[in-house]
Automatic annotation (TrEMBL):
Record-annotated PPIase cyclophilin-type domain positions: 97-240
Family indicated by similarity: Belongs to the cyclophilin-type PPIase family.
Lineage, uppermost ranks: Bacteria, Bacillati, Actinomycetota, Actinomycetes, Mycobacteriales
Keywords: Isomerase, Rotamase
PANTHER family: PEPTIDYL-PROLYL CIS-TRANS ISOMERASE B-RELATED, PEPTIDYL-PROLYL CIS-TRANS ISOMERASE-RELATED
Protein name as it appears in the record: Peptidyl-prolyl cis-trans isomerase
Source domain of life: Bacteria
InterPro entries per the UniProt record, alphabetical: Cyclophilin-like_dom_sf, Cyclophilin-type_PPIase_dom, Cyclophilin_A-like
Keyword field contains Mitochondrion: no
UniProt KW Secreted keyword: no
Length: 242
């Protein structure tokens, strides 16, 4: 890894501060800033609306389900409603296929609780995965209702599970703008990413790595190694169950 590291910043929608992650463009190691949220009701169950049949496009992607992000905002982190000793599964139904994630509530309870809350509020429904990195860190970024890299739910919460954190393929982790600034954006690692232990990992993909691989293979829309995916990746729905 080059000793020269530049900062790539993403602005949180609630504050003037910025989310930063180390990044690489072609020859510099890069990092994708991400913030994610999942949802669980008080009973730990959130239903997902099935996606209708769609015309297939590049990488097997189809037309997004009808609807727009609701863009809700909250003044503070939601109260704890999940059981940290329980097992939770998130199902992300995207225009390019379904990705299933086992959430780590034991090691990242506040993160999983926020993700579950936002999922239950349908905050992620109809949101676009607005960034993919194909050189250096290999991640797909989602969770921003504005699809600009600047959106968030209006609240922030602390980092968790950072001691010895690594980011192998299949990791789902939060973005941040520095310590304790997690919001709604998150990233999915489709190939081992040499990131520093600065981004809360809160689950692992258990099915759908082929979906992420196909999205990555399609590349970046402008032909670079970091930017908007070439294919239209939209989260039609996100649900969390235990």
């Amino acid at each position: 890894m080059s000793s020269e590291v530049q900062a790539r910043e993403l602005v949180d929608g609630r504050r003037a501060g910025r989310r930063s992650l180390p990044w690489r463009s072609l020859r510099l190691l890069g990092v994708l800033a991400v913030g994610v949220a999942l949802v669980a009701s008080a009973t730990g169950v959130v239903s997902a609306t099935p996606s209708p049949a769609r015309e297939q496009g590049p990488a097997g992607c189809g037309v997004p389900a009808a609807g727009q992000p609701n863009g809700k905002q909250w003044p503070a982190e939601p109260g704890m409603t999940i059981d940290p000793t329980a097992h939770y599964t998130a199902t992300l139904i995207t225009t390019c296929g379904t990705v299933t994630v086992a959430l780590d509530a034991a090691r990242a309870p506040r993160t999983v609780n926020s993700f579950a809350f936002l999922a239950g509020e349908r905050y992620f429904d109809h949101t676009r995965c607005h960034r993919i990195t194909t050189d250096g860190i290999y991640v797909l970024q989602c969770g921003d209702p504005t699809a600009t890299g600047m959106g968030g739910p209006g609240y922030q919460f602390p980092d968790e599970n950072l001691a010895g954190a690594t980011y192998p393929a299949g990791t789902i982790a939060m973005a941040n703008a520095g310590p304790g600034t997690n919001g709604s954006q998150f990233f999915l690692v489709y190939r081992d990413a040499p990131l520093p232990p600065s981004y809360t990992p809160f689950g692992r993909v258990t099915a759908g790595m082929d979906v992420l691989d196909a999205i990555a293979a399609a590349g970046v829309k402008d032909g670079s190694s970091d930017g908007e995916p070439a294919v239209d990746v939209v989260l039609d729905s996100v649900a969390v169950r235990n």
